[in-house]
């Protein structure tokens, strides 16, 4: 029996010398230390040995096993470090190579235009106000002279949250809020903000869009003030050569009401495909504040008068930059947005 053990030991010493890789270590672990190894089968013979041989053989067997296990552990550690170092050496990174550039965003043309509009009106002495997007029926409709059964409610398909709570369909909802705040004092204000309508999204419609509301209330305000203010705005925004045209229209909260067109940039007013032959493009709604609206918000219409207007910010951006699809303003594709970088 001891001879057999010695033979295994000698063979193991020989095998250990030839180990070169971690795989070799594993092969030897299997060969000498696994349950299927020769050493294991020898140890299963111990119970059948004569008593006086049991101890010596058992100890001898254990010694050989421990020796092999220790040697294999040592080799394992050495080879692990060696292989790791080789790998690190091979995978060295060249830190002198130039890095990849990150794509930096740019200002969305919507914001370029919105900030410009606000800036133009600030310079004319307007205050900027912001109001809630979740609005009550009262401010979005009733105080704008649009009672519950008024047919003009159909013009604005509304997202209702509860019976009297809705997503505002127009920034005009800020008119009454602002007048209440001003408590009968004269003012000039604009209110930019998001608005919502139950429209199907396509190239020219979006269920969420933005408007800028304008409201001026004072003594002796008249239609000429409205026209002059918007003419100045259009020239600043679109260029000195653009003219405006007022067409009579209808809004429940203004009387008289107008729609305001700008002369077409492509043809200068002669008529082309862009303006559908009319020479003009509609950009604004406005008019003289209806006496009922003034009265309901605490201004005596016999003393005060006012004008109001509303324009769609996205529409101005589309016209200004010749963008053909409103959805491009919302998807934030950097390739699109970067085109407007230098024009700010
Ligand atoms: N709120 C109107 C709309 O969304 C736009 C508008 C028209 C606003 C006339 C006004 C106004 O203040 O006087 O269609």
State the low-pLDDT regions, or none: none
Radius of gyration: 42 Å
The strand line-up of the biggest sheet is 1-5-6-10-9-8-7
What's the total number of strands? 10
Strand content: 15-25%
Shape: elongated
User: What is the SS-derived class?
Assistant: alpha+beta
Continuous helix count? 12
Concise overview:
This protein has 344 residues and is an alpha+beta fold. 41% of the residues lie in helices and 20% in strands. The protein is elongated and about 125 Å long.
Mind sketching the topology for me?
Blueprint: H1 2-17, H2 22-33, H3 38-43, H4 51-90, H5 109-123, E1 127-128, E2 134-136, H6 137-140, E3 160-162, E4 165-167, H7 173-182, E5 187-196, E6 208-218, H8 223-238, E7 244-251, E8 254-263, E9 280-289, H9 291-296, E10 305-312, H10 313-321, H11 328-331, H12 334-337
Parallel strand pairs: 1-5
Antiparallel strand pairs: 2-4, 3-4, 5-6, 6-10, 7-8, 8-9, 9-10
Helix pairs in contact: 1-4, 2-4, 5-10
The chain binds 3,4-dihydroxyphenylalanine (DAH).
The site of 3,4-dihydroxyphenylalanine (DAH) has 11 residues, from strand 9 and strand 10.
Keywords:
344 residues; alpha+beta; 12 helices; three-stranded antiparallel beta sheet; binds 3,4-dihydroxyphenylalanine
Question: Can you give a write-up of this model?
Answer:
The relative contact order is 0.11. 41% of the residues lie in helices and 20% in strands. The longest helix is centred in the first third of the chain and has 40 residues, at 51-90. It starts with a helix and ends in a 7-residue tail after the last helix. Strands 1-5-6-10-9-8-7 form a 7-stranded mixed sheet, sandwiched between helices. A 3-stranded antiparallel sheet has the order 2-4-3. The mean pLDDT is 92. It is built from 12 helices and 10 strands. It has 344 residues and is α+β, with helices and mostly antiparallel strands. Helix 1 runs parallel beside helix 4, helix 2 (22-33) packs antiparallel against helix 4 and helix 5 (109-123) packs across helix 10. The protein has helices at residues 2-17, 22-33, 38-43, 51-90, 109-123, 137-140, 173-182, 223-238, 291-296, 313-321, 328-331, 334-337, and strands spanning 127-128, 134-136, 160-162, 165-167, 187-196, 208-218, 244-251, 254-263, 280-289, 305-312. A hairpin with a 2-residue loop joins strand 3 and strand 4.
């Amino acid at each position: 029996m001891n001879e057999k053990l010695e033979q295994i030991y000698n063979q193991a010493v020989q095998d250990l010398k030839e180990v070169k890789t971690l795989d070799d270590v594993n092969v030897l672990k299997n060969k000498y230390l696994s349950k299927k190894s020769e050493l294991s089968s020898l140890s299963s013979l111990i119970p059948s040995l004569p008593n006086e041989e049991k101890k010596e053989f058992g100890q001898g067997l254990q010694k050989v096993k421990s020796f092999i296990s220790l040697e294999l552990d040592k080799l394992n550690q050495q080879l692990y470090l060696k292989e790791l170092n080789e790998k690190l050496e091979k995978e060295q990174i060249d830190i002198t190579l130039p890095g990849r550039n990150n794509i930096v965003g740019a200002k969305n043309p919507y914001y370029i235009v919105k900030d410009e509009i606000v800036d133009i009106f600030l310079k004319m002495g307007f205050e900027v106000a912001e109001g809630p997007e979740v609005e009550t029926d009262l401010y979005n409709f009733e105080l704008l002279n649009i009672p519950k059964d008024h047919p003009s409610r159909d013009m604005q398909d509304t997202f209702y949250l509860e019976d009297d709570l809705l997503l505002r369909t127009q920034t005009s909802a800020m008119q009454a809020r602002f007048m209440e705040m001003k408590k009968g004092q004269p003012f000039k204000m604009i209110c930019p903000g998001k608005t919502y309508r139950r429209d199907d999204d396509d190239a020219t419609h979006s269920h969420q869009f933005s408007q800028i509301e304008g409201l001026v209330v004072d003594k002796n305000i008249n239609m000429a003030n409205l026209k002059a203010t918007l003419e100045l705005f259009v020239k600043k925004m679109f260029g000195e050569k653009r003219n405006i045209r007022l067409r009579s229209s209808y809004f429940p909260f203004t009387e008289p009401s107008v729609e305001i067109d700008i002369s077409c940039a492509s043809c200068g007013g002669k008529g082309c495909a862009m303006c559908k032959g009319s020479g003009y493009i509609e950009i604004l709604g406005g008019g003289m504040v209806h006496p009922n609206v003034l009265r309901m918000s605490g201004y005596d219409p016999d003393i005060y008068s006012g004008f109001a207007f509303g324009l769609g910010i996205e529409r101005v951006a589309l016209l200004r930059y010749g963008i053909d699809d409103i959805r491009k303003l919302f998807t934030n594709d950097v390739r699109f947005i970067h085109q407007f970088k230098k024009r700010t």
